[in-house]
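Fill in residues.
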């Protein structure tokens, strides 16, 4: 007579003695019991976490309002800083775009100086042709925002004028009486000062 064998339960051999030994149950009741124990353990662990969270103190209304005011103040400051940065960047980019050809303009002024010198010659035919070239050249400069500075007869302005010499004259002291080199302004910026002679009044003054 063969006696019934008890349900065999195998165990997984572990390398480390601290490792969890998981029973490999061959019958359904044992597997069900293990599953129920796992669910019970997980439930207790979750309950412990919830109790730990509930033990932390709840912030008061005053604390919440203070935190809100601090965050709102930081947000407003950050928004203001960003707006100032955006405006400053826009201004700098506009200035760079407007004055991008400043170096090119300064080089062209040398050509303008030669035109002015040629116009002072006595050859009538050459003078007439140069006058037309000068008008065309000035038109091109004005198209790019470059204009000549009117100096003779105006009061000396150190922003626009570079005094080369002071001469006695009947004009009021400090008046520009002669222009040696024309000055030029690009938009609202002086890119080259005019070299001028300034009156120092009559000799008797």
């Amino acid at each position: 007579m063969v006696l019934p064998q008890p349900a065999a339960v195998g165990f997984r051999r572990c390398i480390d003695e601290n490792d969890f030994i998981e029973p490999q149950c061959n019958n359904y009741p044992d597997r069900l019991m293990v599953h129920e124990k796992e669910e019970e353990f997980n439930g207790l662990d979750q309950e412990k976490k919830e109790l730990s969270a509930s033990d932390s103190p709840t912030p008061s209304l005053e604390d919440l309002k203070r935190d809100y005011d601090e965050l709102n103040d930081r947000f407003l400051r950050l928004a203001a800083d960003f707006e100032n940065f955006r405006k400053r960047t826009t201004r700098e980019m506009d200035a760079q775009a407007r004055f991008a050809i400043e170096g090119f303009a300064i080089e062209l002024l040398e050509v303008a100086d030669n035109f002015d010198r040629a116009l002072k010659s006595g050859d009538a035919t050459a003078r007439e042709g140069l006058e037309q070239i000068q008008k065309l050249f000035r038109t091109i400069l004005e198209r790019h925002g470059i204009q000549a500075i009117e100096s003779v007869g105006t009061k000396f302005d150190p922003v626009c004028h570079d005094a080369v010499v002071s001469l006695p004259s009947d004009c009021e002291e400090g008046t520009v009486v002669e222009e040696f080199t024309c000055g030029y302004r690009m938009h609202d910026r002086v890119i080259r000062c005019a070299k001028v002679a300034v009156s120092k009044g009559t000799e008797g003054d």
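The CA atoms of residues 23 and 52 lie 32 Å apart.
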